[in-house]
Write a structure and sequence with these properties.
This protein is of the alpha+beta class and 264 residues long. The chain contains 13 helices and four strands. The protein folds into two domains: 170 residues, NADH Oxidase, CATH 3.40.109.10; 68 residues, no CATH class. The structure holds flavin mononucleotide (FMN). Flavin mononucleotide (FMN) binds next to strand 3.
Length: 264
Protein backbone atom coordinates (compact mmCIF):
# COMPACT_ATOMS: atom_id res chain seq x y z
CA UNK A 1 0.00 0.00 0.00
CA UNK A 2 1.41 3.43 -0.79
CA UNK A 3 2.05 5.86 2.07
CA UNK A 4 -0.73 8.27 1.13
CA UNK A 5 -3.28 5.44 1.12
CA UNK A 6 -1.96 4.09 4.44
CA UNK A 7 -2.20 7.56 5.99
CA UNK A 8 -5.71 8.06 4.61
CA UNK A 9 -6.78 4.77 6.20
CA UNK A 10 -5.08 5.57 9.51
CA UNK A 11 -6.96 8.86 9.72
CA UNK A 12 -10.25 7.29 8.72
CA UNK A 13 -9.84 4.63 11.38
CA UNK A 14 -9.47 7.29 14.09
CA UNK A 15 -11.92 7.07 16.97
CA UNK A 16 -11.45 8.34 20.51
CA UNK A 17 -11.41 5.20 22.66
CA UNK A 18 -13.01 5.34 26.10
CA UNK A 19 -12.92 1.66 27.08
CA UNK A 20 -9.70 -0.37 27.34
CA UNK A 21 -8.46 -3.93 27.91
CA UNK A 22 -6.20 -4.52 30.88
CA UNK A 23 -3.20 -5.71 28.79
CA UNK A 24 0.02 -3.69 29.01
CA UNK A 25 1.85 -2.19 26.04
CA UNK A 26 4.91 -4.07 24.73
CA UNK A 27 8.13 -2.95 26.47
CA UNK A 28 9.63 0.14 24.93
CA UNK A 29 6.83 0.78 22.43
CA UNK A 30 5.65 4.05 23.96
CA UNK A 31 9.21 5.41 24.10
CA UNK A 32 9.86 4.44 20.48
CA UNK A 33 6.64 6.11 19.30
CA UNK A 34 7.45 9.24 21.35
CA UNK A 35 10.97 9.45 19.88
CA UNK A 36 9.60 9.05 16.35
CA UNK A 37 6.94 11.63 17.10
CA UNK A 38 9.46 14.23 18.23
CA UNK A 39 11.49 13.69 15.04
CA UNK A 40 8.35 13.71 12.91
CA UNK A 41 6.86 16.88 14.34
CA UNK A 42 8.01 20.38 13.52
CA UNK A 43 9.35 22.29 16.51
CA UNK A 44 9.35 26.04 16.85
CA UNK A 45 12.98 27.18 16.46
CA UNK A 46 13.81 23.49 16.99
CA UNK A 47 13.84 24.37 20.67
CA UNK A 48 11.84 21.25 21.61
CA UNK A 49 9.97 23.14 24.33
CA UNK A 50 8.13 20.02 25.48
CA UNK A 51 8.24 17.33 28.13
CA UNK A 52 6.12 14.20 28.42
CA UNK A 53 5.40 12.44 31.71
CA UNK A 54 4.48 8.75 31.44
CA UNK A 55 2.24 7.32 34.18
CA UNK A 56 1.73 3.57 34.47
CA UNK A 57 1.67 2.99 38.23
CA UNK A 58 -1.88 2.13 39.28
CA UNK A 59 -1.91 4.19 42.47
CA UNK A 60 -0.58 7.23 40.61
CA UNK A 61 -3.12 6.71 37.82
CA UNK A 62 -5.84 6.59 40.49
CA UNK A 63 -4.82 10.05 41.74
CA UNK A 64 -4.64 11.40 38.18
CA UNK A 65 -8.05 9.86 37.53
CA UNK A 66 -9.48 12.04 40.32
CA UNK A 67 -7.81 15.08 38.80
CA UNK A 68 -9.34 14.18 35.42
CA UNK A 69 -12.84 14.44 36.91
CA UNK A 70 -13.01 10.66 37.49
CA UNK A 71 -13.12 9.76 33.81
CA UNK A 72 -12.89 5.94 34.22
CA UNK A 73 -10.61 5.38 31.20
CA UNK A 74 -7.78 7.17 33.03
CA UNK A 75 -7.61 4.29 35.50
CA UNK A 76 -8.50 1.60 32.99
CA UNK A 77 -5.90 2.35 30.29
CA UNK A 78 -2.38 1.05 31.03
CA UNK A 79 -0.62 4.29 30.10
CA UNK A 80 -1.15 8.03 30.52
CA UNK A 81 0.98 10.53 28.63
CA UNK A 82 0.93 14.06 29.99
CA UNK A 83 2.30 16.54 27.44
CA UNK A 84 3.83 19.68 28.93
CA UNK A 85 4.77 23.10 27.64
CA UNK A 86 8.28 23.30 29.05
CA UNK A 87 10.65 26.24 28.81
CA UNK A 88 12.26 25.39 32.18
CA UNK A 89 14.88 23.02 30.72
CA UNK A 90 15.80 25.52 28.00
CA UNK A 91 16.11 28.33 30.55
CA UNK A 92 18.43 26.17 32.67
CA UNK A 93 20.56 25.56 29.56
CA UNK A 94 20.68 29.29 28.80
CA UNK A 95 21.82 30.00 32.37
CA UNK A 96 24.53 27.35 32.20
CA UNK A 97 25.88 28.87 28.99
CA UNK A 98 25.69 32.44 30.37
CA UNK A 99 23.18 33.30 27.65
CA UNK A 100 20.64 36.06 28.13
CA UNK A 101 17.59 34.67 30.00
CA UNK A 102 14.43 34.27 27.92
CA UNK A 103 11.29 32.26 27.22
CA UNK A 104 9.49 33.42 30.36
CA UNK A 105 6.67 35.30 28.64
CA UNK A 106 3.27 34.74 27.07
CA UNK A 107 4.60 34.22 23.55
CA UNK A 108 6.86 31.45 24.84
CA UNK A 109 3.91 29.86 26.65
CA UNK A 110 1.93 29.98 23.42
CA UNK A 111 4.81 28.49 21.41
CA UNK A 112 5.57 25.74 23.91
CA UNK A 113 1.88 24.88 24.37
CA UNK A 114 1.33 24.51 20.62
CA UNK A 115 4.54 22.50 20.24
CA UNK A 116 3.26 20.18 22.97
CA UNK A 117 -0.15 19.85 21.29
CA UNK A 118 1.24 19.04 17.85
CA UNK A 119 3.62 16.51 19.43
CA UNK A 120 0.65 14.93 21.20
CA UNK A 121 -1.22 14.57 17.92
CA UNK A 122 1.75 12.99 16.11
CA UNK A 123 2.15 10.63 19.06
CA UNK A 124 -1.54 9.79 18.88
CA UNK A 125 -1.22 8.84 15.21
CA UNK A 126 1.93 6.81 15.92
CA UNK A 127 0.19 4.88 18.69
CA UNK A 128 -2.88 4.33 16.53
CA UNK A 129 -0.67 2.96 13.74
CA UNK A 130 0.17 0.12 16.17
CA UNK A 131 -3.53 -0.59 16.73
CA UNK A 132 -3.56 1.17 20.09
CA UNK A 133 -6.46 3.37 21.16
CA UNK A 134 -6.12 6.89 22.54
CA UNK A 135 -8.32 9.56 24.03
CA UNK A 136 -7.35 13.16 24.81
CA UNK A 137 -8.14 14.50 28.27
CA UNK A 138 -9.33 18.10 28.11
CA UNK A 139 -9.52 17.99 31.89
CA UNK A 140 -5.73 18.58 31.93
CA UNK A 141 -6.52 22.26 31.36
CA UNK A 142 -9.11 22.42 34.14
CA UNK A 143 -6.81 20.67 36.67
CA UNK A 144 -3.57 22.16 35.36
CA UNK A 145 -2.23 23.39 38.70
CA UNK A 146 -2.99 20.17 40.59
CA UNK A 147 -1.57 17.96 37.81
CA UNK A 148 1.58 20.11 37.56
CA UNK A 149 2.10 19.80 41.31
CA UNK A 150 1.32 16.08 41.42
CA UNK A 151 3.81 15.42 38.62
CA UNK A 152 6.34 17.72 40.38
CA UNK A 153 6.78 20.14 37.51
CA UNK A 154 9.18 23.06 37.96
CA UNK A 155 8.35 26.70 37.09
CA UNK A 156 7.95 27.39 33.34
CA UNK A 157 6.54 23.91 32.85
CA UNK A 158 2.82 23.16 32.74
CA UNK A 159 0.72 20.26 31.39
CA UNK A 160 -1.36 21.13 28.32
CA UNK A 161 -2.96 17.83 27.44
CA UNK A 162 -3.04 14.14 28.31
CA UNK A 163 -3.47 11.04 26.19
CA UNK A 164 -4.84 7.86 27.71
CA UNK A 165 -3.36 4.95 25.78
CA UNK A 166 -4.18 1.25 25.60
CA UNK A 167 -5.72 -1.62 23.67
CA UNK A 168 -9.31 -0.79 22.72
CA UNK A 169 -12.14 -2.87 24.14
CA UNK A 170 -14.76 -1.04 22.10
CA UNK A 171 -15.20 -0.20 18.41
CA UNK A 172 -17.26 2.99 18.29
CA UNK A 173 -18.70 4.41 15.08
CA UNK A 174 -16.84 7.23 13.36
CA UNK A 175 -17.97 10.64 14.64
CA UNK A 176 -19.06 13.13 12.04
CA UNK A 177 -17.37 16.49 11.48
CA UNK A 178 -18.50 19.73 9.90
CA UNK A 179 -18.53 19.55 6.07
CA UNK A 180 -15.64 21.13 4.08
CA UNK A 181 -17.80 24.10 2.99
CA UNK A 182 -18.15 25.12 6.65
CA UNK A 183 -14.47 25.60 7.32
CA UNK A 184 -12.34 25.58 4.14
CA UNK A 185 -12.09 29.02 2.53
CA UNK A 186 -10.67 29.99 -0.86
CA UNK A 187 -8.32 32.98 -0.75
CA UNK A 188 -10.24 34.88 1.92
CA UNK A 189 -12.56 34.21 4.82
CA UNK A 190 -16.20 34.04 3.72
CA UNK A 191 -18.59 34.89 6.54
CA UNK A 192 -21.41 32.37 6.67
CA UNK A 193 -24.97 33.62 6.37
CA UNK A 194 -27.69 32.25 8.64
CA UNK A 195 -28.72 29.96 5.76
CA UNK A 196 -25.15 28.66 5.48
CA UNK A 197 -25.06 27.98 9.22
CA UNK A 198 -28.39 26.16 8.98
CA UNK A 199 -27.19 23.97 6.16
CA UNK A 200 -23.67 23.34 7.39
CA UNK A 201 -24.61 22.44 10.95
CA UNK A 202 -27.72 20.43 10.06
CA UNK A 203 -26.18 16.96 9.92
CA UNK A 204 -23.89 17.43 12.90
CA UNK A 205 -26.73 18.83 14.94
CA UNK A 206 -29.06 15.99 14.08
CA UNK A 207 -26.49 13.23 14.63
CA UNK A 208 -25.01 14.81 17.76
CA UNK A 209 -28.43 15.28 19.35
CA UNK A 210 -29.45 11.72 18.49
CA UNK A 211 -26.20 10.30 19.88
CA UNK A 212 -26.57 12.14 23.19
CA UNK A 213 -30.24 11.20 23.48
CA UNK A 214 -29.45 7.56 22.88
CA UNK A 215 -26.30 7.51 25.05
CA UNK A 216 -28.26 7.00 28.29
CA UNK A 217 -31.73 7.64 29.78
CA UNK A 218 -29.91 9.84 32.33
CA UNK A 219 -28.66 12.14 29.54
CA UNK A 220 -32.15 12.44 28.04
CA UNK A 221 -33.48 13.30 31.51
CA UNK A 222 -30.76 15.94 32.01
CA UNK A 223 -31.57 17.60 28.67
CA UNK A 224 -35.18 17.83 29.74
CA UNK A 225 -34.33 19.09 33.23
CA UNK A 226 -32.08 21.85 31.80
CA UNK A 227 -34.56 22.79 29.07
CA UNK A 228 -32.11 21.84 26.29
CA UNK A 229 -33.66 21.29 22.88
CA UNK A 230 -30.68 21.47 20.52
CA UNK A 231 -27.01 20.50 20.36
CA UNK A 232 -26.04 24.19 20.38
CA UNK A 233 -27.95 24.74 23.62
CA UNK A 234 -26.32 21.66 25.11
CA UNK A 235 -22.78 22.92 24.44
CA UNK A 236 -23.13 26.05 26.58
CA UNK A 237 -25.48 24.56 29.16
CA UNK A 238 -24.55 23.99 32.80
CA UNK A 239 -23.90 20.30 31.99
CA UNK A 240 -21.34 20.78 29.20
CA UNK A 241 -19.11 23.84 28.69
CA UNK A 242 -20.75 26.24 31.12
CA UNK A 243 -19.53 29.79 30.24
CA UNK A 244 -19.68 30.84 33.92
CA UNK A 245 -17.43 27.94 34.83
CA UNK A 246 -15.14 28.73 31.89
CA UNK A 247 -14.76 32.27 33.20
CA UNK A 248 -13.52 30.84 36.51
CA UNK A 249 -11.17 28.40 34.73
CA UNK A 250 -9.83 31.25 32.58
CA UNK A 251 -9.05 33.42 35.60
CA UNK A 252 -7.34 30.43 37.28
CA UNK A 253 -5.31 29.72 34.14
CA UNK A 254 -4.11 33.31 33.89
CA UNK A 255 -3.15 33.31 37.57
CA UNK A 256 -1.29 30.03 37.11
CA UNK A 257 0.63 31.30 34.06
CA UNK A 258 1.68 34.33 36.08
CA UNK A 259 2.64 32.25 39.12
CA UNK A 260 4.69 29.76 37.06
CA UNK A 261 6.67 32.41 35.20
CA UNK A 262 4.92 32.42 31.84
CA UNK A 263 3.78 36.05 31.97
CA UNK A 264 7.15 37.68 32.57
C1 LIG B 1 -8.01 18.67 23.32
C2 LIG B 1 -9.04 17.58 23.43
C3 LIG B 1 -9.58 17.28 24.66
C4 LIG B 1 -10.50 16.23 24.80
N1 LIG B 1 -10.96 15.90 26.04
C5 LIG B 1 -11.76 14.83 26.20
C6 LIG B 1 -12.14 14.41 27.50
O1 LIG B 1 -11.76 15.00 28.51
N2 LIG B 1 -12.94 13.31 27.60
C7 LIG B 1 -13.36 12.61 26.51
O2 LIG B 1 -14.08 11.62 26.69
N3 LIG B 1 -13.01 12.99 25.25
C8 LIG B 1 -12.20 14.06 25.08
N4 LIG B 1 -11.80 14.44 23.82
C9 LIG B 1 -12.21 13.66 22.66
C10 LIG B 1 -13.30 14.37 21.85
O3 LIG B 1 -14.50 14.31 22.55
C11 LIG B 1 -13.40 13.66 20.48
O4 LIG B 1 -12.18 13.83 19.78
C12 LIG B 1 -14.56 14.19 19.65
O5 LIG B 1 -15.80 13.90 20.25
C13 LIG B 1 -14.57 13.56 18.25
O6 LIG B 1 -14.60 12.16 18.34
P1 LIG B 1 -13.47 11.25 17.68
O7 LIG B 1 -12.15 11.64 18.28
O8 LIG B 1 -13.84 9.82 18.05
O9 LIG B 1 -13.52 11.47 16.21
C14 LIG B 1 -10.92 15.50 23.66
C15 LIG B 1 -10.38 15.83 22.41
C16 LIG B 1 -9.45 16.85 22.29
C17 LIG B 1 -8.86 17.17 20.93
Amino acid sequence: MDRAQAFHELLNDHRSIRSYRDDPLPDGLADRVLEDALHGTSSSGNLNLVSVVKTQDRARKARLCELHYDQPMVLQAPLLLTFCADTFRTREWLALRHARPGFADFVSWHTAAFDAMILAQTTALGLQSHGLGICYMGTTVFSMRAIADYLEMPPNCLPVTTLVVGWPSEAPAQRDRLPPAAWIHDERYRRPTAAHIEARFAQREERGRKRYMESSPEMARLWQEHGISSLAQYYTSKIKYDPDQFEVFSADLLALLRERGFLG
